[in-house]
Amino acid sequence: EVQLVESGGGLVQPGRSLKLSCAASGFTFSSFPMAWVRQAPKKGLEWVASISSGGGGTYYPDSVKGRFTISRDNAKSTLYLQMDSLRSEDTASYYCASILRVYPDYWGQGVMVTVSS
Amino acid sequence: DIQMTQSPASLSASLEEIVTITCQASQDIGNWLAWYQQKPGKSPQLLIYDATSLADGVPSRFSGSRSGTQYSLKISRLQVEDIGSYYCQQAHSNPLTFGSGTKLEIK
User: In the A/B pair of chains, how many CB contacts fall below 8 A?
Assistant: First the structure.
């Protein structure tokens, strides 16, 4: 059974940093791309970052480019999201997702990030 | 960026009724489209991929179709466990974009 468990969320002041982790199990983590998707309170879904299976390829939308960094440790089956220069508009639930078949097909339970002074 | 225009924003339907949700892509995305269900307080779940293929474990009352750049999700006989929000997502090109969502309620 595929399991994705996020951690590292919390309350952080604007301009500060936070690093999310996602522990994966139940599939060959090193063989598949991964992604982070976020959802602001009462809002829709937004793709935040994705990374290739080997980690050499990454993608970010303009809204987070230059501030967020996705990475992975295939030996530990863990995905990360380093978030710097956080803004109030980054407040959201952040979901880790596996991309076994082009689309995010398995999702974690999500972790809340609140950016506020 | 490819825009996905989803409608309706909300929908109230009776049990056993047929429900249809649509997404209009701003340009050709082929069959690179998925549908997700998000139940209240839960994470999204993949329902349909490649526009028409049913994901593992998804009930057969869910189906997807395509007509040009318009994509539809149909629930053939609405059940109480189908309440929640539904999102389309295109995987044709970056940035990968979602529709704005449809909130489905039971009448």
Answer: 48
Cβ B101–A45 below 8 Å, yes or no? yes
Q: Residues A13, A5: contact at Cβ < 8 Å?
A: no
User: Could you give the C-alpha distances from A69 to A19, A44, A76, A99, in angstroms and in order?
Assistant: 9, 22, 18, 18
Partner B, chain A 27-66, Cβ-Cβ below 8 Å: 37, 44-47, 50, 59, 61-62
Look at residue A101 in the predicted model and tell me its pLDDT: 84
Q: Cβ(A58)–Cβ(A75) under 8 Å?
A: no
- Give the model's pLDDT for residue B29: 97
Residue A100's pLDDT band (boundaries 50, 70, 90)? confident
Q: Is the pLDDT of residue B76 over 90?
A: yes
Distances (CA, A) of A29 to A52, A56, A79, B28: 11, 15, 9, 32
Q: What is the pLDDT of residue B89?
A: 97
Contact across the interface for B87 and A45, Cβ inside 8 Å: yes
Mean pLDDT calculated for residue range B64-83: 97
